[in-house]
Amino acid sequence: MVESKIFSHLSTTTAITVTQSVSSRIYPMWLPQETGFPAISYTRVAGNQQYNLQGYSSMENPLIQIDVWATTYKAAKDISSAVHTAMQAAPGFKAILRDDTDFYEDEIEVYRVSMDFSCWNRE
Known about the structure:
This protein is an alpha+beta fold.
């Protein structure tokens, strides 16, 4: 699964964990109730197994959504830029940014940048 590779890569990228102060706040699917900010969540939005004439090719091409959460718009944009750079340089899989969208979450008063990556991974 590419999700474990994404977690491993993002959680060991200093530009995200230290420089952008995310630390270890990188979570699958959603953020825990009492999470501090900034934080990152990731989830598989769609999956796509690749087949050829011999059958399953051991390649997958899922759509992975990565959300960056921060208390300021600037922090959310800076972290999303660091995530984009890290995903492009990831070893072991290829990630292509398909789109990104900015949000403000009124209920919890944080900014969110949501990015969709097309990921190619050999299982």
